[in-house]
Amino acid sequence: MKFYITTPIYYVNDVPHIGHFYTTIAADIMARWKRLNGFDVYFLTGTDEHGSKIAEAAKVKGKKPQEFCDEMSVKFRQTWKLLNISNDDFIRTTEQRHFVAVENIVRILFDKGLIFKKKYEGMYCIGCEKFLAKKDLDEGGYCPFHKIKPILQSEENYFFRLSSFQGALLERITDVSHEEHIDIQPEERRNEIVGKLKLGLEDISFSRSTVEWGISLPFDKSQTVYVWTDALINYITAVGYSKDETKFKNYWPVDVHLMAKDILWFHSVIWPAVLMGAQLPLPKTIYSHGFFTLNGSKMSKSLGNVIYPQELVGNYGVDAARYLIVALIPFGLDGNISWQGLTLKYNTDLANNLGNLISRTLKMAEKNFNLKIPQAFLNLELAKNVEKKLKETFISNMNNLQLHKAAEDLQDAITLVNIQIETDVPWKLAKTNKNKLAACIYSYLQAIDVVAIHLLSFMPNIAEKIWQITGASGNINDVARKYFINGVIPKDGFSVSGRDLQGPKILFPRIL
Ligand code: ME8
Description:
Number of strands: 15
Distance between the termini: 46 Å
Helix content: 40-55%
Strand order of the largest sheet: 3-2-1-12-13-7
Bound molecules: ligand ME8
Shape: elongated
Radius of gyration: 26 Å
CATH architecture of the domain at 338-486: Orthogonal Bundle
Strand content: 15-25%
Structural class: alpha/beta
């Protein structure tokens, strides 16, 4: 089975911040999870490089647009590398493979009479890269998202007959039994889209005559393709549209398009309409996660309240940064981020719960068994309890993209082992019954191994480290894949007696 998941392709006018990081980490966790479950995964991210916003940003830096995009796109790649993002592809809209796909789609729509020429005057917001209606503006006449005044523009453009897709879209979005059903999540967002759709659709501008930095229309070289049309098509370019039919048939339609609510309309209305126009299959799920603010206000460079991924990594380390950001905010809801909140979560979940579990187990093994896994009777009861707890909800939460809940499930499983340790009072057993102590430690290690396997998608490096610490056998990724496919703990467990317990005793130093 295949699983194709995408993030938005991000504008290169600025470097990636915590918002881009959030979507990309969430997609990465899903991609890793599906791979562990035996899926043939295609995970796509990339950069959106055309349009007036990018051309202006390049001009400000005194660079040619292409040179500017080359430099900025690398910054996204580097950041995703730092964060251990496992994308299978990274697409840039300035690549040749993308030009071919865009030209083909636009030509098909034109030939079908879905694109026509019209004179148009409207208020264009360069931040959104779209025309805004009066009702979209705030009281001062500003774009509510970008706090800039849209510019009045008058052009003769090519338009796309979006209005003719209203009924077909409504049907596919609201009827779950439709064979081309588009599942928009979460429900509140779907309701907003449906509500807006019911009000009717207007045809939209599909090209620009005043923007040079873009892909020329194949049938009128004096115009360039509207940057949003250009951008959305990336999702089919990457899986071989117009180039590799086998690959395209294998991966398209996409299983999940992930993004925040700011661009949900483009993905759930305009994009499916374009696909329908070109007679291509439609996305299965479109998931809009929440938009978050920093210390209660909109993130903005001018307000100086932007968090960059590198800062998170500097404070907490790569794996903790990955975990914290998804554990902190309910997926699908808007949320507020603060350094205080992040550090509190780090100390509670990682230093005090998971970190403490590892370090107390290691300390006991060091004091009593010279840091070797004791030869003992193998009792997998605790490991099975942890497994049972995780099976109850973790798997369905992961499959439904409820990542914050899955993180809670992990914490509950870790707590279960910590509680067992409190109940056993192993430090007393050290004096009275060393055989029992050996069996206890051995069982804690097996339970920790089960936790590590489930942590893998969130914290790949930490999970691997834990695997080493507990002396578990085999490569954790191979073992986890087998485990998720077979669904049972091997009868000999994971950690092997007699092995050395190695690795750092403190995985997550407490932050004061
Ligand atoms: O819109 N909270 O690119 P973009 C949560 N190029 N997520 C956030 C966020 C925040 N405060 N800020 C940004 C574009 N994001 C187009 C997309 S796709 C064909 C073209 C994330 O660089 C979130 O995923 O403005 C949001 O949808 C995306 O970044 C917008 O990225």
